[in-house]
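We were asked to recover a plausible sequence for a given structure. The inputs and outputs are reproduced exactly as logged, with field labels preserved.

PROBLEM: sequence recovery
POSITIONS: 499
GIVEN STRUCTURE:
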C-alpha cells in the first residue's frame, strides 16, 4: 500500500465532512477559495468536494500532519507544471479505466462468454499499468525538485510498487491474456482432489487453430470429444480457468486503480494550492505558511491578514489587519457600521480553516493554536417559511453547534441575538458565550451590543476590538484594539444614503 501525501503516519479511516460544512463555506466565503483551486465556478464539482473534505474534514489533522502538508505544498508551488501534468495524466488514465470497467458490470458478465470477460479484464489491466508507467516517469522528473519528506517518501514507495520496467512487462503480459482468450486449444493441468475431482487447475498453454495445425497429430493421452457431453465438459473446464484468470487480472487492476485514485484525490488538493497561490499573486495578496501550535494556551497573532474571499472576488488586495490576540479566549469586535467587522471575521475564519488543513494563508504572518473544529453562527436573513421567530431560529442553530462542540474549537459569531432587544440579547450572549469559553472554546463575536462589550471590559482572556472610523466619517476598514463606543455611527450611513 502506498503512503499518503496528506498524513505523515497513518491515514484515518473515512474522514468525514461535517454536516454544517455548506453553511461554514457560505458564511466565510470559502466557495471563492475552492473555485479558484479548481479553475472556476462549476468547473470541477467532484474536485471541489474533495478539497472541502480536506479543508473541513474530521478528525482534524494533527500539527505534525499540518507541517507535513505544508512541506508538500511548498514542493507543489516550486514544481506546478509537473504537479498539473501528473494530475491531468491521472484524470485521463482513470477516466479511461472507469469507462472500460463500466463495460464489465454484472449485466455484461452474466451474458458474456468467459473469453470475452478475460479480454475485458486484460484491457482494464493494460490501461491501469500503462497509467502506472506514465505516473512513474513524471514522479522521476519530480524527484529532482522535491524537498518534502512526503513527496520523496511517496516517490521511493512508488519505485517499489512499480519497479523499473515492471509496467511495460505487465502490459506485455496482457497481450498473452488476449491470445489465451482467442485460443481454440487450451492446455490445463490439475490435481486429483476429494471425490476424484480435479482441483488447482492451471493454464499451461494456449494455441490458435493455425498454430495447432502446424503441430503433428499425436493421439497419445488424448480423449476425442466425440459426444456433446464431452464437449460441454471440456468447455466448462476451459471457461472455469478463464474465469479464474479474469478474476485475478480484474482484482490486480482494481487494487492498483484504488491507489491511483487515492493519489489523484490528494493531488487535486496540492494542484489546487498551486493554482490558488497564482490567483493570490494576481491580486497582490501575500501568503505565508502559518505556525500551528498544539499546546501553549490560546495563541492567535497575525500581520497583514487579508480576506481571501474578498481578494479573489474583486481581483484586488483588500485592507489588511495586524493584531496580537495571544491569551484571548474571547474577542469582541464592535465599532462603526460598514467598518469592516464582518469582513475581518471572515478573514480570520478563512485563515484558521486554511491553517488547520495545512494550506498557506492570506497574510504576511499567522500563528495560531491548533483548532479541532470551526463553527459559524452568522445572522441570517428573514425566512417567511419559518414556524417560529427569528430568535428561535438563532437559538436552534446555536443548540446544534453546542451539541457538536468540544475543546479547541473556534466559534465565529456575527451579530448573533440581534433579532431581540439589547438587554435580552446581552443576557443570552453572556450566558452562552461564558459557558463556551469555560469549556475551552475560543469565540470571536461581532456585535453592536454596547452593554455586552462594556461588561466584558477588563476581564481575563478577553480582547476588545473596534472597527476604526476617520474624523470625516470615512472608514479605513481596519480593526484595532479599543473599548466599545455607545454609537455605531449609523448617522454616517444615513447622511451618505439619504442626506
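RECOVERED SEQUENCE:
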Amino acid at each position: 500500500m502506498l503512503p499518503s501525501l496528506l498524513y505523515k503516519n497513518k491515514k484515518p479511516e473515512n474522514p468525514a465532512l461535517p454536516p454544517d460544512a455548506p453553511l461554514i463555506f457560505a458564511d466565510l466565503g470559502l466557495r471563492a477559495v475552492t473555485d479558484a483551486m479548481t479553475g472556476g465556478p462549476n468547473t470541477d464539482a467532484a474536485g471541489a468536494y474533495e478539497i472541502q473534505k480536506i479543508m473541513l474534514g474530521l478528525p482534524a489533522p494533527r500539527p505534525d500532519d499540518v507541517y507535513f502538508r505544508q512541506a508538500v505544498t511548498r514542493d507543489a508551488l516550486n514544481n506546478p507544471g509537473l504537479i498539473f501534468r501528473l494530475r491531468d495524466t491521472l484524470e485521463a488514465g482513470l477516466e479511461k479505466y472507469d469507462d472500460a470497467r463500466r463495460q464489465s458490470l454484472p449485466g455484461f458478465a452474466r451474458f458474456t462468454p468467459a473469453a470475452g470477460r478475460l479480454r475485458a479484464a486484460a484491457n482494464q489491466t493494460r490501461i491501469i499499468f500503462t497509467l502506472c508507467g506514465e505516473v512513474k516517469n513524471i514522479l522521476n522528473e519530480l524527484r529532482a525538485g522535491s524537498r518534502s519528506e512526503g513527496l520523496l517518501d511517496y516517490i521511493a514507495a512508488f519505485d517499489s510498487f512499480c519497479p523499473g520496467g515492471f509496467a511495460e512487462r505487465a502490459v506485455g503480459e496482457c497481450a498473452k491474456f488476449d491470445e489465451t482468450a482467442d485460443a481454440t486449444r487450451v492446455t490445463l493441468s490439475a490435481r486429483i482432489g476429494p471425490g476424484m475431482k480435479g482441483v488447482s487447475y492451471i493454464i499451461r498453454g494456449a494455441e490458435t487453430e493455425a498454430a495447432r495445425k502446424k503441430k503433428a497429430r499425436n493421439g497419445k493421452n488424448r480423449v476425442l470429444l466425440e459426444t456433446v457431453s464431452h464437449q460441454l465438459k471440456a468447455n466448462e473446464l476451459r471457461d472455469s480457468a478463464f474465469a479464474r484468470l479474469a478474476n485475478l487480472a480484474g482484482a490486480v487492476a482494481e487494487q492498483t486503480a484504488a491507489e491511483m485514485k487515492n493519489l489523484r484525490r490528494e493531488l487535486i488538493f496540492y494542484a489546487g494550492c498551486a493554482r490558488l497561490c497564482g490567483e493570490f499573486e494576481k491580486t497582490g495578496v501575500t501568503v505565508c505558511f502559518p505556525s500551528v501550535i498544539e499546546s501553549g494556551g490560546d495563541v492567535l497573532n497575525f500581520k497583514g491578514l487579508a480576506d481571501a474571499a474578498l481578494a479573489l472576488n474583486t481581483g484586488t488586495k483588500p485592507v489588511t489587519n495586524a493584531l496580537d490576540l495571544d491569551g484571548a479566549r474571547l474577542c469582541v469586535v464592535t465599532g462603526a457600521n460598514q467598518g469592516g467587522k464582518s469582513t475581518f471575521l471572515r478573514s480570520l475564519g478563512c485563515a484558521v480553516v486554511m491553517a488547520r488543513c495545512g494550506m498557506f494563508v492570506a497574510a504576511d504572518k499567522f500563528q495560531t493554536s491548533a483548532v479541532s473544529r470551526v463553527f459559524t453562527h452568522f445572522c441570517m436573513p428573514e425566512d417567511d417559511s419559518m414556524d417560529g421567530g427569528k430568535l428561535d431560529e438563532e437559538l436552534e442553530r446555536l443548540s446544534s453547534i453546542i451539541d457538536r462542540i468540544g475543546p479547541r474549537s473556534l466559534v465565529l459569531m456575527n451579530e448573533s441575538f440581534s433579532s431581540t432587544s439589547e438587554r435580552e440579547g446581552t443576557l443570552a450572549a453572556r450566558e452562552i458565550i461564558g459557558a463556551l469559553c469555560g469549556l475551552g472554546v475560543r469565540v470571536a463575536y461581532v456585535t453592536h451590543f454596547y452593554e455586552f462589550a462594556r461588561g466584558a471590559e477588563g476581564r481575563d482572556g478577553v480582547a476588545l476590538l473596534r472597527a476604526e472610523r476617520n474624523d470625516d466619517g470615512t472608514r479605513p476598514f481596519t480593526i484595532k484594539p479599543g473599548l466599545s463606543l455607545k454609537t455605531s455611527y449609523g448617522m454616517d450611513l444615513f447622511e451618505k444614503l439619504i442626506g
